Amino acid sequence: MAESGNVAAIPTVEHLASLIDHSLLHPTLTDTEILEGLHLARRHNVAAACVKPYSVDTAREVLAGSSVKVCAVAGFPAGNSTTRIKVIEAQEAVRAGAHEIDLVVNVGKVLSQEWAYVANEIRAVNEAVTTTPVGGSDPQTHAILKVIFENDYLPNEAIVRLCKICSEAGVAFVKTSTGFGFVKQSNGMYSYTGATAEHLELMRETCAPEVQIKAAGGVRTLDDFLKVMSLGVTRVGATATESILKEAADKQLT
User: Does residue 246 sit within a domain?
Assistant: First the structure.
């Protein structure tokens, strides 16, 4: 994460784990690696394991009987699917057992300031997600929606507008990044920043109080984690789950 800093108080390892969405979204992950990641998520009792849509069945089976939620993505990572396809993808994942859906906005429409399109899409997916019973639930429950902005692509004005749209739609979370939003740099190389203090502060300031903030992209160390927590973040997408929790456990022993 950009601009990370030291924060004195270290919460318990259990509390830190309860804020993590363990990310299993890289396109090269094999079935074996996904299984290993799901067992890691279960072992550490994280908030959720975030998987690609085809892995929802496996995630539901591995995580059954635990408190770890299944999170699936929709329109991932570029956000370019039609609204209808995003709705279908989200509903299918929920029916298969996903408790949470991370939806990527249509970035091109955001940058075109086609706000009616953007708002209608977010509302349509949120309605579908929150009214579709989660498959395998007993008793049946409904899922929640997190909306990914992909902040690396956006000016602050667009982030503010998205926060207002998401607040009006009543989504559960807004999220900074996919972790795959690579921007072409002046040297021709592609890279991304991910969650930054500036953007997280802006999102927390602009969103309705009941909309939670998820930081994703670049949160790789305990210092990074504590910094975003201090900015009002209540969920963190991470691939470095084990190393972050180990660092916290080691520091609490010293």
Answer: yes
